[in-house]
Structures are given as C-alpha cells and as structure tokens.
C-alpha cells in the first residue's frame, strides 16, 4: 500500500569531526576550492600559464615556470576529480586524484603524448573550457603522511600517462624569455617536487544550521 | 567590560551569531563613519576587544577556550591579556586599507599603479544560502617590505634629442628610471572571514580590499570571492522561490496522506502545492521569504491490482 512512496532524505549537513570546537582537524592542509601558486623547489620558479599557445606539439595553451612571485597568472585552483567528489574546504589526501584549474583562463593542467618543445620530454599544457577538460586532467598528489600539508614538497603524478610534473631548467626565448619549460617525465627525482606558496587557502567550514556548541 | 553586551548577543550565542554581530557593528561603529562622536574610538576598541582577532591566537568570544575563561573569571581572568589592534580585526573581515564608506570603490588616483585582482570562486550549498555561513580562509601573499639600499622604479621610455652637429639632431629612445627606497617581497599570512549572507545569489562578489596581488611601485589589487551556488539534490531555486517534487502512490492520492518533508535547515514542512514563506530569504531583506512550490507526482501501479490491494 505504501508502494512508490519515496522517503525524503533527511538533509545531512557535512560536519568534519572536531569542528564544533573551532579547531580544524588538519590545520596546515591544502583543501579543495583553495587557490594557490606552486613553486618547483629545485628551480625556484612557479607553475604558470597564460594565453600563449605552443608553437609545436599539440598547439594548446602553454604551461611554464616563472620567477616572479607576484604574477596573478600563476594561480591554480584545486578541485576534485568531479564537482561533487571534493567539497569546499575538504583536505586533500596523499594519493588522491585532483585537477588543477588555471584561475585566469579556466583551463586544466593537462598532459598527453606530445613531445615538449625544448627537452623532448612529454608536453604539459592547459586544456579545457571553464574548468571542464577531459580524462587527462587528473593528477595524483604524492606525499608521505595522510594529507597534503602546505609546508611539504609534493609530487604530482599524472593519471593516464604516469609521468611526474617536472622542470629541468630549459628556458624559452622570445616572447616568453626566461620562462622555464614545464614537462612530464617518468622518473621520480628532485626535479619534480612542488610546494604550495602564496594563495587563498580555505579552511574546513563550520556547519551552518545546527550549532549550539557553547 | 561586558563583552556580550558590547556585541549585543546573548551568553548562549553561537560563533556564527557572534561573527555576524561583529561584522554588523564594525560597519556601524567605525570611527570614520562617526566623526561627530567623541567616544567612537573607544566604542570601536571595545568591540575589537570583545571579538579580538589576533593572527594565530584566536578570539575571545569566538574562541571556545577563551570564552570559558571569560565566562568564569571575567576580563581579568583572561590569561595573557590582549592587544586590540583594530587594524588587524577589521582587515580580518574586510581586507587591508579598511573599508571605504560611502559605498563607492576607492577613489583611485589613476597615476598609482595597481596590482592584479584575484577572483576566487566560492561554492556554496543551498543550505548555506538559506541559513547563511562564515568561511575562514588563510591568505598568504607577498608584501613589500623595506630593504637596505635603493632600487630603480617607475621606469619608462623617454625620447632624447642629441645634437650631432650644427643643424643635425638625433632622437633616441632611452629608458629612464627614478630612484626609490629598496623593497623586497616577503610572504605574510593572515586569516580572512567571508560571510555567506542568507539569500545570496549566484555571481555576487565579496571583495577584500588590498588582498590581491601586490605591486612594488603602487597599491595591491583586491581579492574578490565570487559566489557559485551549487545544485541541490532535492530543491531547485528560482529567484527566492524553491521548487521540489514529491512522489506519492495512487492509494495516497485517492485516500489522502500525511507526510512531512525536511527543509534546508531541517525544519519540517507539511506539503501543500504552495507554501508561502518557505522559500529562500530575500538578500536585501532577510525577513521576506519566497515560496516553496511542491509538485506531486502520482505513481500509478505498473501491474494489475490484486484483490487485496483493491480492497485497501
């Protein structure tokens, strides 16, 4: 007689443990929704993109390393594999797959089987539209420990081609003189360590509706 | 000092209520806004002490530990005392350079170069649109600090005319710079609070003045949070109205039924086709709410009814 009645879901509001006491569980972790700059620790340049396309390879938007610390084109947004898979403020786990979306152009950090222009490694580009690209936009955060801590240097391993996001020092000429080539390489070494630097880091959120914590 | 009275909240107020109260009063009591009030500075400082934001140290009424101490022992009972620097507190909610009253973006001298703005998309749930929320964010940014020596600044191209001989001139382009005190960029961190106001709409922005990219020769740009309202599995938003769908069986449709649905903050609603006042709060006036419109889907049985079902 009650066939077809749909039980209405009780609206459960996400609440991370320990939050009611005003302290987050992982104070120094990078969270989804955060916007940040990534520094390659070996070469001291920041991951960067801009509206300049590769002249060879895929012809997609280029990704480089720049020395300046105050360039707004070096900001990347951390997102989960899908829009629902990593809520705003959720700390990123070591081993988790994420997307890095270039804030100013809306394209995702991407790599594929094209050679990079200077070193003949694998070309790394910025691909997609308004944050939506394809299956080659996913990178695994490799770190020791449970979460990606802001102070730690981590590696980014590509899901699909298994290469590490790296810089080995080759420099471009005009019109992006001095910028370094960013590419994917299969070996894990000191060229593929990156550290979160400047940015807007979102802390896990307080539960909106039900708080009578004090 | 009675910190609760200064903020205008009850002793049992939640952290969210305290933050909301601070934010509202900070705008009202800022000395720039009350030039005729001789006690404006004092009132503003009291407000700051009650809220008390110090980078890394935590707030009085909004920090659980400190609040317990204050509740038990009063202001003297607070352990390491407090410095209320209202610059810190204010910029926690509104960004550097304070907040320009009068509603206009700051009157910019067009000659002062400005760093880039940063726009951060802030995803919010429909629950947050209904009840409001605060999002804490850590801003790590390069700040220009004094360094020893001098540097070249305001470099520009200028045309120089040199005389080569009688009646013969040559024009060349030259880079000319001024001399300025040396600066270096040092990374600094501070916590900011973004308030998600009830009724907020997709695309609305919350700016933090001066929290964008720095410019060595000028002013920093702004940091702007842009609201992106996420789709909700149960409710659909249209303006201030909410739409949802309820499926009932044929029997219920014929004989009537009783059912409650849970709203965005958990309170129950007895569904009718139109429930006035059960929509979202209006952004400009939170007391006015839109409507909740419920459509009923009747599920017709797929096979023949058995004799028992027909009886029921």
From TrEMBL, chain A:
**Quick one: a GO cellular component term?**
endoplasmic reticulum
For whether the record's keyword set contains rRNA processing, the answer is no
> Looking at the record's lineage, which domain of life comes first?
Eukaryota
The MIR domain is annotated at: 27-81, 89-144, 145-199
Q: Where is the signal peptide?
A: 1-22
Name the predominant localization.
secreted
Q: Which Gene3D superfamilies match?
A: 2.80.10.50
Instruction: List keywords of the entry alphabetically.
Output: Repeat, Signal
Q: InterPro entries annotated for this entry?
A: MIR_dom_sf, MIR_motif
Location in the cell reads: Secreted
Which named protein is this?
SDF2L protein
Protein's organism? Ptilorrhoa leucosticta
From TrEMBL, chain B:
Q: Which domain of life is it from?
A: Eukaryota
Q: Name one GO cellular component term.
A: endoplasmic reticulum
Q: This protein is called what?
A: DnaJ homolog subfamily B member 11
GO molecular function: any one?
Answer: unfolded protein binding
State the UniProt keywords alphabetically: Glycoprotein, Signal
Q: Which CDD domains match?
A: DnaJ, DnaJ_C
Q: Name one GO biological process term.
A: protein folding
Q: What is the species of this protein?
A: Ptilorrhoa leucosticta
Q: What does this protein do?
A: As a co-chaperone for HSPA5 it is required for proper folding, trafficking or degradation of proteins. Binds directly to both unfolded proteins that are substrates for ERAD and nascent unfolded peptide chains, but dissociates from the HSPA5-unfolded protein complex before folding is completed. May help recruiting HSPA5 and other chaperones to the substrate. Stimulates HSPA5 ATPase activity. It is necessary for maturation and correct trafficking of PKD1.
Source lineage: Eukaryota, Metazoa, Chordata, Craniata, Vertebrata
Domain J, by residue range, is: 2-74
